[in-house]
Amino acid sequence: MRQLYHTTELIGIKDKNITLTKVFQRETHIEVQATLDYTPPKCCHCQGKQIKYNFQKPSKIPFIEIGGLPSLIRLKKRRFQCKDCHKVTVSETSLVQKNCQISELVKQKTAQLLLNREALTHIAEKLAISTSTVYRKLKQFQFKDDHSTLPEVLSWDDFSYQKGKLAFIAQDYETKKIITILDNRRQTTIRNHFFKYSKEAREGGEIVTMDMSGNYIPLIKTIFPNANIVLDRFHIVQHMNRALKQNR
Ligand SMILES: [Zn+2]
């Protein structure tokens, strides 16, 4: 058990340098006004001493629900100025990545909702951000292009991100890590993506589980020559137990 001392913690802001100044209940959402401030670090340009300068004008950061309502943080970030080189820098926070207006929590929440098969439109509504933002940000934050390895157990899914449009998502079944998201689930798109991986990486694929149509089975067999296909992922545990027994 951990006692919470600050309202910021209660609503999910971990950065202790953020202080809430005002909170408003708007008709459609909660608006939180907050400041980011801390003792200036050394200048990143010349290692000189920085002093506190003014605040930047507030940036709008969509945040996760508070009390069931979408919320928005208007965060005023402290600016610092170097006494030696006079350069001005802006304070940084773990709440959002540099040059990014989507909070880490919203990203996590987006991914979580996507994996619960919620449509992007629905997610966007819930988190009060635009569908294209959800999609763009999601694509941005997930994956580096490492085509050398693939998980042994992979799940394939599709999800809708716009009315009538389905995207493709592949995840590591065990860690739930997103391996890729493709704009559509056409077989050629999927094939082209997975053929970027080496033959060895693809041959290591042991199980592919999917909820998609059986039309994808031949494709999976082409990509992962050694994989077993499990159509109902709720049976995967049984399947893996069986596989383990065989190996003993
Ligand atoms: Zn400096």
Feature tags:
248 residues, alpha/beta, six-stranded mixed β-sheet, five-stranded mixed β-sheet, binds zinc ion
Give a concise summary.
Helices cover 27% and strands 31% of the residues. It is α/β, with parallel strands linked by helices and 248 residues long.
Structure notes:
27% of the residues lie in helices and 31% in strands. By secondary structure, it is of the alpha/beta class. The strands form two sheets. Strands 1, 2, 3, 4, 5 and 6 form a six-stranded mixed sheet that branches. Helix 2 packs antiparallel against helix 3. 28% of the residues are buried. The mean pLDDT is 81. It binds zinc ion. The site of zinc ion has 8 residues, from loops. Zinc ion is lined by residues 43, 45-46, 48, 82, 84-85, 87.
Q: Provide the succession of SSEs.
A: HEEEEEEHHHEEEHHEHEH
The bound ligands are: zinc ion
Query: Helical stretch count?
Result: 8
Ends apart, CA distance between termini:
42 Å
> Which residue ranges are poorly predicted, with pLDDT under 50 across at least 5 consecutive positions?
none
